Amino acid sequence: MTSYEKVRSNGAWISSRPVKILLLIFLLGPPFLLICIETIVEQRGRELTSTILDKLSFDSLSSSNKSITTSSNETITSSSTSSSNVTTKNNVSSEDDCPCYSRCEQDSLRRPSRIHSLPPALSTALAAYERMHSSCYHSRDLSKAIQAPDPNDPCRYLVFLQDGKFGLGNHILSLLSAFVYSLLTNRMLLVDTRNHIPELFCEPFRNSSWLLPPDFPYDRLLLAPMLADGLKQKFRHGSTVHLMLLSQQTPQEQLFFCPDTQTRLEKVRWIGWSSNQYYVPRFFTFPRFWRPLVSLFPDVSLTFTHLSRYLILPQNPVWEKIRRYHFAYSSLVQGKAVGVQIRRRENAEFHEPTYRRTMQCLVENGLVPSVSESGHDIPADKGQHQSRKNRTKVFVTSLQSRYYEELRNTYINKPTVDGSLVRVHTMSHDEVESQSYEQVRNALAEMWLLSLSDELVTSSWSTFGYVAQGLGALRPYILNIKGDFGKDGLPACSLGQSIEPCNQFPFSSVCERNETADLEHSEWIKAHIRPCQDEPSGIQLIQD
């Protein structure tokens, strides 16, 4: 066998048949690549496809981008090309220059209109926060700090506690809320390492770590007094409290939203944060927080976008998977990219009315072309012209693979009325939510891939969709697929009023209702906070 009949990929020899495919790819160009990919997926399985895509994507990226430039002092900047704490100019990172690839490369995958610089005030605040975090992290043993508190310790702490009952979307929304609260109250944010966070996300803070040590005594937080009990004990200086800010709360837990409670929490050294909600919109209603928040986020509709692109950057193995799929299915073929996320809370099984409503949403809003129900092809000259001119790439995420299969088969078996080409792709379909590492890794990759779309369709009430829209700075088309929607009289989907996720359960305490509101603050709330479209009792940030 001659040398050109073999290809080395990740240290393993691949048989000569895939080599012939690779040679044809290089000869015939990118369109043939996608045809080959689909054929391989069907005939040889996903494992071989992933190997070939790895070879193609990384070789191509490496050959065209030889180096990466990072800022000399790794400080947070308000660069026009990045919203992270490292400024980059090229697409490929090295471990030495940028240990977290996604921090340096994320903007290279986005369209220029989707890149948003950090506001100067936020950039300054994050730099100061990182200095505080580093100082507290390096000057004490965290396990000892909670077991034997030092009354002279100037640091205060907030520990994000994960609850295995909730999905990744809920965890991300809650994590960002915990970070904003930590930023506003000058607390060192630390995260529970007993679940998947260390494997999913890069360390966000320069010269520090948000990971608790392996011997950290979590029981000190889990068994700490709840909010109401802490208030009765008058929160002795250096005390510990466990906040339960879930979607279901008792009136005692809702005391968190009282201004007096916030004043008294300043004495608490350690806060355990258990939540499944996105409380950032709610923080804008706090009299003591709204002015600082407006300064940090002058365009409030980009609040989640800035936070997520700073805090939830995927670890390198996850990022490589994101980059590989994006390169294979999006970058090589020009055209509109449409992300579709389908999730029904009532039932995870395939639901025919949901599929029909999804297709109706896509077609009626011009996201995909309609198909010829007669099955007859359009004239060849028109079809060839349009297929070269208009191409649509649809990326589908759902626990149920049948939604993807039905959409793909529709565009395989029937011609489009305008002759344009539609390609439908998916990455995973686990059928059942398990919270295994493999599943949450795929979920994070899919959130990022959806966020790189030109247009996005999400499911009502889905925190998974909330993360994707906020991360991508996209106003989504929200599928109206809750409950028995055949009788709701609603359109198939509605264009979202904001990029921001919904705070589904904002709650309101008696103490707030009895307070006299500041007129300027009240007018600001009327202009920038509205009920959510998919949950009328929830609230959402709006930029006029």
What does this structure look like?
- With 544 residues, this protein is of the alpha/beta class.
- It has three domains: 3-64, no CATH class; 120-311, no CATH class; 334-501, Rossmann fold.
- Helix content is 42%, strand content 12%.
- The chain has 22 helices and 14 strands.
- The strands form four sheets. A six-stranded mixed sheet has the order 9-8-7-10-11-12, sandwiched between helices. It has a four-stranded parallel sheet with strand order 4-3-6-5. The chain has a two-stranded antiparallel sheet with strand order 1-2.
- Helix 11 (259-265) links the parallel strand 5 and strand 6.
- Helix 7 (168-185) packs across helix 20 (463-472), helix 15 (316-331) packs across helix 19 (437-451) and helix 19 crosses helix 20 (463-472).
- It is globular and about 80 Å long.
- The model is unreliable at 1-21, 23-84 and 86-93 (pLDDT under 50).
What are the main properties of this structure?
single chain; 544 residues; alpha/beta; Rossmann fold; six-stranded mixed sheet; four-stranded parallel sheet; 22 helices; 14 strands; 12% strand; globular; disordered N terminus
SSE arrangement:
Blueprint: E1 7-9, E2 12-14, H1 16-28, H2 30-44, H3 46-64, H4 101-105, H5 120-138, H6 142-147, E3 157-161, H7 168-185, E4 188-191, H8 197-200, H9 219-222, H10 227-232, E5 240-245, H11 259-265, E6 270-275, H12 280-283, H13 290-296, H14 303-311, H15 316-331, E7 336-341, H16 352-364, H17 380-389, E8 391-397, H18 401-413, E9 421-426, H19 437-451, E10 455-459, H20 463-472, E11 477-479, E12 493-495, H21 510-513, H22 519-528, E13 529-531, E14 539-541
Parallel strand pairs: 3-4, 3-6, 5-6, 7-8, 7-10, 8-9, 10-11
Antiparallel strand pairs: 1-2, 11-12, 13-14
Helix pairs in contact: 1-2, 2-3, 3-15, 7-20, 14-20, 15-19, 19-20
